[in-house]
Amino acid sequence: MTANSPADNLVELENAAATCPLDRCARIISGILQLLTSSRDRSQELLAVVADGVLLRLIERVEASTLIDVSVTLAELEAAPPKTVRRLASHHDPEVACPVLLRSQALSTADLASIAAASGERQQCAIAGRAPIDPLVIETLIEGGARSVCLALVGNREARFSDAAYVALTEKCLSDDELTKALALRPDTPDRVMRELLSPSPGPKSGTGPKAIDSHQAAAAAPIVAKLPCAASYASARPEIVALNRIGKLNDSAVNRFAIRGETANLVTALSVLSGVPIEIVEHVMTDEDCEGLVMACRASRLNWQTTLAILSNRCGRRLSFAGRERAQQIFETLLLSTSQWTVRWGEIAANARESDGGHRGAGKTGVSR
């Protein structure tokens, strides 16, 4: 009797799996997964290759709930059955595909780029969250991805953007303020990209005649009037801000959220509470053309640079230029080196603001104490 070769045995095993009773398929899959997760290093790699064809046949015959379990398990393996992982990653159900798309190392760059170009938004967001993620995959996602996909990429600190990716992202930022803010707040965004993000947006395409040009120039020359909350808004915001401060949750995360969402009353009140100065002083530095006072207010409030940048980029009535951003960061970093210096300087600015305001908006607004 002639013995079958290992290859013939594998083919026979795969054929048997294809005709296996449905009630046994899930149990066999569970057994294979246990073998894969309990093996280590070289033995896991060999077992993954051997089990690949059998798993492929079995997953075609089980329900989606079982496929989800398989996807979650294989996503965590250093050596997973490659064909099975690719099949799961290409599945139409996001619940099945997303675990391996997010974490599995068995997917090649070509696999991910191909799936990114043809899959839905949830699958693309899962790919965008991978760490690491290849620049080619990033470019594919930006080209065909929805807004949420681009935001997921920008929020992925492990993502490294190519020049082509930055160009594509900058174009999308022209019509998306949230994406612009997210990209500007990334610590590794190049200076040249920051210049484009912070440069004035191009005017509307319609109305290109002389009258339209004159009106555009007049609008650009008109000063931006800062809109500050009324006393009632500060009074309404104060209890929540003070409560957050008392329980230790008036932190960078909370203040950053106020800035990004444009919650000016909450933001001004928070800076007043954290820095220990009256609200009218914070209003003064918020609307001052020079960013120095506001940077010092943030530093006195023990906020980090990212939160400070968010406040500078979203303060009422002022748009932060690239040069202003560089100067603000230099001031902030200098203040980090000399606590006494910024404390004294912040006190001087506060005193000058009191003199210049001279009771302006003072009625009905007292200083907020800690």
Helix content: 55-70%
Q: What count of helical segments does DSSP give?
A: 22
The string of secondary-structure elements, in order, is HHHHHHHHHHHHHHHHHHHHHH
Average pLDDT taken over every residue: 80
Low-confidence stretches: 1-9, 203-225, 359-370
Structural class: mainly alpha
Overall geometry comes to elongated
Question: What characterizes the major β-sheet?
Answer: none
Distance between the termini: 90 Å
The number of domains: 3
Query: Count the strands?
Result: 0
Rounded to the nearest angstrom, the radius of gyration is 29 Å
Offer a concise description of the structure.
With 370 residues, the chain is mostly helical. It has helices at residues 6-18, 22-38, 41-59, 64-75, 82-89, 94-103, 109-118, 121-128, 135-144, 147-155, 163-173, 177-184, 191-198, 210-221, 231-246, 252-261, 264-275, 279-287, 292-300, 305-314, 322-337, 339-357.
